Amino acid sequence: MENQSVIDTFIEIDPVDSDDFLKIKETLTRIGIASRKDGLKPTLWQSCHILHKRGRYFVVHFKQMFLLDGKQDRTTVTDEDVSRTKVVANLLQQWGLIKIKAHDVEVQENVNLVVIPYQDKSNWILKKRKPKPSFKLLFIFQQAMRCMAFFCQGAPYDFQNT
């Protein structure tokens, strides 16, 4: 899937200023899917992000971000993911944080989604899903770190006297 065709699946919103961008970004950290392990604080996995790309603003599902990063072979965006993104965008619009550009964003009411009030966020572990680097990129990074460690041993290198 080409980047432009991925971008065409995003929910575009009217431009926001930097303060509003940060408010939206923080609010999105408190909207997602909850999980609980015995004896620990509950965890909330953030579902959506705000994206600023080429002067345009979007509300996107984290899996759509993976597609944008070229991870099509390992990413499947489901109908539920799309529905969840639409619900999140509509909530942000109802709260006056954004204005959705398209008027045909239909909302399905039955989606697995939790919204944590700001005052309750200290009672939760908030997590974001991040793409894992490919094995090849991880290998290159490890090799670079080994080289840096090798060259940084002993006295610092004097670049001016070479």
Please outline what is shown here:
The chain is of the alpha+beta class. It has one domain: Translation repressor RegA (Alpha-Beta Plaits, 2-Layer Sandwich), CATH 3.30.70.
Can you tag this structure with a few keywords?
alpha+beta, Alpha-Beta Plaits, four-stranded mixed β-sheet, three-stranded antiparallel β-sheet, 5 helices
Number of strands: 7
Task: Report the radius of gyration as a whole number of Å.
Answer: 20 Å
The main β sheet shows up as: 4 strands, mixed
Structural class given helices, strands, pairing? alpha+beta
Number of domains: 1
- The first-to-last residue Cα distance is 48 Å
Characterize the overall form.
Answer: globular
Strand neighbour order, sheet with most strands: 6-2-3-7
Q: Uncertain segments of ≥5 residues (pLDDT<50)?
A: 155-162
- What CATH architecture do you see? 2-Layer Sandwich
- CATH C-level name: Alpha Beta
Secondary structure tally, helices = 5
